[in-house]
Amino acid sequence: MFNQPKVKIGIVAVSRDCFPESLSVGRREALIKAYTEKYGADDIYECPICIVESEIHMKQALADVKNAGCNALCVFLGNFGPEISETMLAQQWDGPVMFCAAAEESQNNLSDGRGDAYCGMLNASYNLKIRGVKAYIPEYPVGDAEDCADMINEFVPIARALYALSNLKIISFGPRPQNFFACNAPIEPLYRMGVEIEENSELDLFEAFKKHEGDSRIPAKIKEMEEELGAGNKKPEILEKLAQYELTLLDWVEAHKGSKEFVAIAGKCWPAFQTQFKFVPCYVNSRLTGMGIPVSCEVDIYGALSEYIGYCISEDTVTLLDINNSVPKDMYNESIGGKFDYKHTDTFMGFHCGNTCSKKLAFCEMKNQKIMARALPVEVTNGTLEGDIAPGDITFYRLQSTSDGQIRAYVAEGEVLPVATKSFGAIGVFAIPEMGRFYRHVLIEKNFPHHGAVAFGHYGKALYEVFKYLGVSDIGYNQPACDKYPSENPFA
After folding, report:
1. Tens place of pLDDT for every residue, the chain, 492 residues?
2. Angle, CA of 66, 69 and 70, to the nearest 5°
3. In CATH, what number does 168-477 get?
4. CB burial string 17-54: b at 16+ within 10 A, e below
């Protein structure tokens, strides 16, 4: 995939010197065999130099996995493990790290063949804590070769997102629009994550756009757009300007990556954008997001960050939507109630002007932006991609800073229902179990903004682990009816 890393996890087995080293050797070999048979060998590297029993071994293993080009690490306790050197290994590793441990194989070999890694994981976790080292530990981190292979595979998207964030630059253009302070949050927490921010003015972008007039690549871009839109190409007269703008952004990204490998964009889209550029950028935003460069609207920096995290985890296109409007009761009664297992309050509509990639729409066509056209000449509001979002599983989520610089997040899995929206924009009828309570006691109670990122599939487990690893202690989710929120009135 473009604009995200390829993960290579170095697997280092460790052994406590009063346990047979052969246990760790054999169990590591069985783990590698199980992983490659089920998932292939592309994501992992077996450190063959030594079994880590000491600090010297730790240094040797660290050098080996770095030389092998690994960007993530799995510390595998083949037996009890050396709690000092194994956690020093994690401490000196510059990147995502996980721990897992070998289960005992057979009741017939519980003397010389017993490894006690079940116990060793306790000491490992204690030592990680006192060293201040973050590590991913699976829900149940002890298993046989096949179990541990599955754990490592689940770590792959988590590691991909974490590594990418430490090598990400978010490029923004302009301040947040008036009355959109909800998108304005302190950026200091981003630097703590390793994310770099480049803030630019709209004038910088406009100057670059003007310099791309007559660019020789414009005709080829127009052809790409025509092929993508097909019968939905309802505004052919605007494609030249949109192609010019797309090339402007792509060239800006390449020229401004600097020391970082990956990029996301937080773009300005109104109110002056239309009158000066003479179009709206929605369709171009949808195309770049489809290419793997997420673009948020209304200079929503944390929205762009959230989109990018979902892109890395899902390896698929994402989008950013307003948690927008309620589903009318007559629509619910006609198209949802009795057909799907959702209450009326479980449903809502997710909407944005036209930033969702055409691949994620059931149908689409180029139009003008209806809301903006209420206050501006229609001819400067062309360039939005409209259509109903395709039905299927989704995860709604966001990472956000509070006004005092604390990061919090939410994750909720649900689906887009196969129900016609009968509305405008890029829009869908969403259903999330217990959405009404989640809306009130997470989204409202904890002051989240109206934008939510959407990944197309159920990725709640990996997103939750990424947020935990980043140090987010407040992660909201849609709790079942039997599980009350702290702010929920028990008598309601």
Report:
1. 689 999 999 999 999 988 888 889 999 999 999 999 999 999 999 998 768 889 999 999 999 999 999 999 999 999 999 999 999 999 999 999 999 999 998 899 888 888 899 999 999 999 999 999 999 999 999 999 999 999 999 999 999 999 999 999 999 998 877 766 667 788 999 999 999 999 999 999 999 999 999 999 999 999 999 999 999 999 999 999 999 999 999 999 999 999 999 999 999 887 788 889 999 999 999 999 999 999 998 899 999 999 999 999 999 999 999 999 999 999 999 999 999 999 999 999 999 988 899 999 999 999 888 888 787 888 888 889 999 999 999 999 999 999 899 999 999 999 999 999 999 999 999 999 999 999 999 999 999 999 999 999 999 999 999 999 999 999 999 999 999 999 998 887
2. 75
3. 3.20.14
4. eebbbebbbbbbebbbebbeeeeeeebbbbbeebbbbe
C-alpha span between 10 and 61 (Å, rounded): 9
For residues 485 and 419, is the Cβ–Cβ distance under 8 A? no
- Measured CA to CA, the distance from residue 143 to residue 141 in angstroms comes to 7
DSSP code string of 315-349: TS-EEEEEEEEPPPHHHHHHHTBTTBS--GGGEEE
Tokens linked to 50:
């030594």
Q: Which CATH entry fits the domain spanning 9-165: 2.40.10.10, 3.40.50.10940, 3.30.465.10, 3.40.50.1980? A: 3.40.50.10940
pTM of the model: 0.95
Q: How many CB atoms lie under 10 A from the CB of residue 473?
A: 10
Q: Where in the chain is the domain with CATH 3.20.14?
A: 168-477
Tell me which DSSP letter residue 471 carries: T
The answer to whether the beta carbons of residues 7 and 160 sit under 8 Å apart is: yes
Q: How far is CA 386 from CA 229, 246, 273, in A?
A: 11, 18, 19
Distance, in Å, from the CA atom of 414 to the CA atom of 393, rounded to the nearest integer, reads 6
Distance CA 194, CA 369 (A): 36
Write down the H helix ranges in 93-236. Answer: 117-131, 145-165, 188-193, 202-211, 218-229
